[in-house]
Amino acid sequence: MERQQVRERIRELTLAFFQAKLGLTPRSVEVRGGGDTLEVRVRGFFAPAEKALIDHPKERRAIEDYYLRLFDQLLPLLNAGVGKAGPIVRVQTLLDLRGNECVFMVTLGKESEVIIQNPAEAERE
């Protein structure tokens, strides 16, 4: 799979993830970059009730924690979706609650690289 195809596949998978997990379609999903690092920017996915709570520190933290835990589930989906085009070695999540957007910095690896997603799995090997 060529890099342009990888970018498009990541965009499609990210959109499907948001639709499946949140039951809504984000305003936009963009994938930019080249080489081994891609920026996936998702805009407009908060529910109206969440937007209303963002200015309250306690609720803001709960919303942030919820989304960060949810987004941890994106890495296995992306890895399965891009296949041998280059495993996704790392996804760094940057969540901007006030801006109603999230940026995933996706680092692609080589087929030969071993991905350890769960430290407990590494101990068993």
Whole-number radius of gyration?
Answer: 15 Å
Distance between the termini: 30 Å
Q: Give, in spatial order, the strands making up the sheet with the most strands.
A: 1-2-4-3
How many runs of DSSP E, i.e. beta strands?
Answer: 4
CATH class: Alpha Beta
**Helix-strand makeup class:** alpha+beta
Largest sheet: 4 strands, antiparallel
Our count of domains comes out at 1
Contiguous uncertain segments of 5+ residues: 111-125
CATH architecture: 2-Layer Sandwich
Shape: elongated
Your description of this structure?
The protein is elongated. The longest helix is centred in the first third of the chain and has 20 residues, at 3-22. The protein is built from five helices and four strands. The protein has helices at 3-22, 48-53, 57-71, 74-82, 119-124, and strands at residues 28-34, 37-43, 88-96, 101-108. The chain has a four-stranded antiparallel β-sheet with strand order 1-2-4-3, with helices on one face. With 125 residues, the protein is of the alpha+beta class. A hairpin with a 4-residue loop joins strand 3 (88-96) and strand 4 (101-108). It starts with a helix and ends with a helix. It has a single domain, classed as Threonyl-tRNA Synthetase, Chain A, domain 2 (2-Layer Sandwich), CATH 3.30.980.
